[in-house]
Amino acid sequence: MIITKTENRVRTITFDRAQAMNAFNEALYAATSEALHDAAAEPDIAVVVLTGSGRAFCAGTDLQEMPERDTSVPYTEGARGFTRLMDTVIDFPKPMVCAVNGIGVGLGTTLLGFADLVFMSETARLKCPFTSLGIAPEAASTYLLPELVGRQNAAWILMSSQWITAEEARAMGLAWKVCAPEDVLPTAIRYAEQLAAQPIESLVAVKKAMRAPHVDDIRAALARENALIDELIGGPANVKALADFVAAKATPQEQ
């Protein structure tokens, strides 16, 4: 599910479900949370870099699992892997760098709100498809994105379900640097190593101080979003969107 590599006090965590565009299923949620917990606990790890295998950074939550869920349980109560990952990234004490090697959809975009630095391939694109799925945003994106990119840019990203190019993401402030595809991970690691050369306790102190004014607001946004998702999921727009998704997936296999 993931590949980890450590060099020069930098732990690189690679999402490795390339056949599913690195979409999060319960197993990948658990593996990512565990890898981040391990990196936080290891005294010789200073910085974490998140990236994806294949042509995607992360295609969000695996929608193929949604129709199979137990509808008697509120979605956000059943999504234990997502809940644990959110707790993990909110509390992650060390610098977190994202190297967006390819498309980022849903959580593949909103996860960037928790990153301290974001590097994007010039061919990568981002999308928050929540409205097209008939649901509400997640991962505290209704708080984090306005903070990062401004209210109007955030409104467009979260409401339109349209693709955002790497250059648009950089201009908005969602990405820090845009690189050639072959350079995005090496560049991210190079900058991560510069951070990792500093005392870990100082890096942790800086992140703690920067994060402190926002933690309560992030958790409150996450709770509001979860309530709205539970309200909308299973509604007519969501049911139709999931049915269309499943049909589109099935069609090539039937031909």
Automatic annotation (TrEMBL):
Where it mainly occurs, coarsely classed, is: other
List locations, semicolon-separated: Peroxisome
Q: Which UniProt keywords apply?
A: Isomerase, Peroxisome
Q: Name one GO molecular function term.
A: delta(3)-delta(2)-enoyl-CoA isomerase activity
Gene3D superfamilies given in the database record: 2-enoyl-CoA Hydratase, Chain A, domain 1
Q: Give one Pfam family.
A: ECH_1
Q: Write down what this protein is called.
A: Crotonase
Q: Which organism encodes this protein?
A: Mycolicibacterium poriferae
